[in-house]
Design brief:
- There is one protein chain.
- With about 625 residues, this protein is of the alpha+beta class.
- The chain folds into four domains: about 230 residues, Histidine kinase-like ATPase, C-terminal domain (Heat Shock Protein 90); about 140 residues, Ribosomal Protein S5, domain 2; about 90 residues, Rossmann fold; about 130 residues, Up-down Bundle (Four Helix Bundle (Hemerythrin (Met), subunit A)).
- Helix content is about 40%, strand content about 20%.
- The protein is built from 22 helices and 22 strands.
- A nine-stranded mixed sheet has the order 1-6-5-4-7-3-2-8-9, with helices on one face.
- The longest helix has 24 residues.
- The radius of gyration is 32 Å and the shape is elongated.
Length: about 625
Amino acid sequence: MTENVQTHGFQAEVRELLRLMIHSLYSHREIFLRELISNASDANDKLRFSALAQPELLAGEPDLKIWADYDADKKTLTIRDNGIGMTREEAIAHLGTIAKSGTADFFKKLTGDQQKDSQLIGQFGVGFYSAFIVADEVEVHTRKAGEPVSSGVRWASKADGEFTVETVERAERGTSIVLHLKDEAKEFADGWRLRSLVRRYSDHIAFPVLMRKEGEATLDWEPVNQAQALWTRARSDIKDEEYREFYQHIAHDFAEPLAWSHNKVEGKREYTSLLYIPARAPFDLYQRDASRGLKLYVRRVFIMDDAEQFLPMYLRFIRGVLDSNDLPLNVSRELLQQDSEVEAMRSALTKRALDLLARLAKDEPEKYAAFWKEFGPVLKEGLGEDPSNRDKILPLLRLASTHEESDEPKVTLADYVARMKEGQERIYYIIADSIPAARGSPYLEQLRSKGVEVLLLADRVDEWMMGHVREFEGKRFKDVARGDLELGSLEGEADKAAATEAAKENEKLLKRIRDALGDRVSEVKVSTRLTDTPACLVLAEHDLGAQMRKILAATGQSAPESKPVLEVNVGHPLLQRLESTTDEDDFAELALLVHDQAKLAESGSVANPGEFVRRLNRLLGQLMG
């Protein structure tokens, strides 16, 4: 009996994803089996958890399993579970739309290049829709646990932009997915091929995956996987390939992880953790409200997918499993936030994750460089968010510097300190919108002339990060665009004497400029930073920099007013021309032009671009006669 048959259109993003997968993932098509079995495992996990509060949900079929069956003549493959199942409404919602945050960013980054797009799809996660890589038509038969037999659902689609849903009689609890295989995919209706793929991709699944016995006309089924949760096994018994496949199972990512750490803790607290570092960032990495965290089990019973309480926000890229023997089976997110045991585990897991990163950086620097490219700005957040682990995070930084010709972040703070000049007491850095902009900044001129290395920072988080960092190995950090350069013994006595003499000789010029600029600046002084540029604006030590001001403006917030110091290079021809200008109106125009040039170098913009262009054109006209 059927009733209420409806036809629905796929969400636009689903249609696009289906098109891309069908055409871009041909070389990865066997991953569909891993995805469907992973989903079946998740459905069983969810039922086992729900049955803690409602044991009647398991009535009549307490043993949770997964079945894989095929019909070579009909070219069909069926994956079935007896897990939580879906209602009609859930089938429409889960199988017709993509609710994952980051969807918009995902589609913006698609290139039309099948090879590149296949990597992006793997990064985004493929899930149920991977079935259409090998199937012309997919049917889903499902019934929610605890619902009557009459509430079964049949969902069907040919990936043509539409799907149908109807209510049917279904005796079996759980979900069956029937794939009508394409001609070129009939290999997946072969028993030997199917068994080998199940063993390869699903040996670590905690539920038995059953197939009919080969070579026998029988209805007997036999397990083809170990059906033992991988993290419960001894590390010495687990192959690297098994660790990689388990990561792909929990992360729904067909890229291999960069590294992992598997540990069992015994004593006052007993738990097992398996942490992974992914190779690529997910699309919702910078959406701080996106789902994150570890898969949480209590005594091997699945509790939740994204227990974020066990790792800090700046380690939100870590994927993995935590299985505790101490937490109660009825633990909730609210209880996790209040539990002192959770806080102790969080501290230990954080240190374990940072140790894993440190080992990767030491033993496999190329892999760590790949990690830093994907996750470096996120890890930097930890310097402000996690003071207790700041000394562990600082050595993990990889930064660009004037020592390297490449703009790639390669330099460690230890590298920098080892190369410091004799008498140098500060770790110098500059923050700009880009590494090339930082490298070409006038603030570096004096330091470059003395051969002093400067770290080049350009991530959005950098100014905020450096506000929380004071020193490394006893050497204080110094922003070259703030306050005094603090050259110490790098500045010889002759340099100091020359600077003092220049300030005395140019007192009148400095006052004239100060009067012309009014409240635009707090002071005008002779610069010790510049050798080639006429002027620069220098912030006070605690003023907000250009980067933070732009971030605040982008979020609709106003930044407190600040008045920088204008430092001038009195040896520059423009300043000499300024000094010789007797007409006060002309002097004021030139002084404003010098100020705006310095403002451009500091923040990349001026308050009134039209006025700046007018002044510049007027000066050029005078020079051209």
